Amino acid sequence: MPDRNVALELRASGDHWEQLPQLAKDLVASNVDVILTFSCPAAIAAKNATTTIPIVVTESGGDPVATGLVKNLSRPSGNVTGVSDMAIELAPKRLEVLKDMVPTLRTVAMLWNVNDLGMTLRYQSAADAARTIGARVQPFGLRESEDFDEAFASMVRDPPDAILMVSDALTRLNRQRVYEFAAEHRLPTTYERANYVREGGLSAYSPDLDEIYDRATYLIDRILKGAKPADLPFEQPTRFHLSINLKTAKALGITVPASVIARADEVIE
Question: What structural domains and CATH numbers belong to the chain?
Fold first, then answer.
């Protein structure tokens, strides 16, 4: 098309994290103007691959400072900026909503990818948050798809009261197995993204992804017009969504309090 002035170089690893460093090097070799990433491991791989090409990060694992992507949020330094998904800060909120719906909650099984530093930080935050509501996290760190079977077997031996699944490529690709296990064992499950609730999960508390990607696009536009990532503050979302699936709640025998329904942004019936 004559008015086309942007070319996209797409790279994806799925759940093969070991490919990310080479994919990042490929992008650097292609001499792209900006690199946009969609996970903490991808962002780290990109940062390790170049100190000169600007990098805009989304879904950073919750804390871009703790993961070493930037020195601080207001002045990132280096060649990295982006928009945080605040996943670490939102972990307590997800557990609070779960506790409101399941007052007897004592043990929450947590599924997360241990290959991802951002996911591990989310686990630690969730474990701390669980203690404040009188519960504990039953940790199931996963490295590959085969690990889900072992996690499910452990849950059968030592049943939790609910499941919290952290969202990344590994868990996303295996989400149907989690849905089926949760339904079979009547386990309420909370997620980080609303689409999991639309597919049958009980609840999700999430940042507005449209806002995150809109702001990431804005940052890319600024960079292409000459701004330096070091001078562009690492942003945080301002809009959040609570999603509840009442059909799933009914199947689990859970009565969702009116107060939870009232503050939900999306209620699936």
Answer: 17-85+208-238 (3.40.50.2300), 87-206+241-268 (3.40.50.2300)
